[in-house]
């Protein structure tokens, strides 16, 4: 279940407060199901975040390290993703399809 405090901080573009909250929470944030259309998220520490089923249409994610984030079901239609480090369990083709067509990302199960 999404953390309402964290969602509000992102929606109000309060990156410093968000990052401080996340630091006190072992670096984790639950933003699942959040709608971040057009948001500039470059200042936010989303490295260990639950971003499942999030909507990132036209969002700016450039340079973020999302390698430890959960992105299953997220949509990246027209997002800016230059330099983003995606989780290893999401294939490049999944990312391309999501960027071009808005399909939901499918993370491979790691055994």
Q: Can you characterise this structure?
A:
The longest helix has 10 residues, at 15-24. The chain is globular and about 35 Å long. The chain has one domain. It is mainly alpha-helical and 111 residues long. It has 3 helices and no strands. The chain starts with a helix and ends in a 10-residue tail after the last helix.
Which features does this protein show?
111 residues; mainly alpha; 3 helices; globular
What string, H for helix and E for strand, traces the elements in order? HHH
What structural class is derived from the secondary structure elements?
mainly alpha
Number of strands: 0
What is the multimeric organization of the chains shown?
single chain
Rg, rounded, reads: 13 Å
Can you give the mean pLDDT? 95
Distance between the termini: 25 Å
The shape is globular
Runs with pLDDT <50, length 5+?
none
Number of helix segments? Answer: 3
Question: Proportion of β residues?
Answer: under 5%
| Largest pleated sheet | none
- Domain count: the total is 1
Helix content: 25-40%
Task: Give a brief description.
This protein has 3 helices and no strands. The chain is mainly alpha-helical and 111 residues long. The protein has one domain (1-111).
Layout of secondary structure:
Blueprint lengths: L3 H8 L3 H10 L67 H10 L10
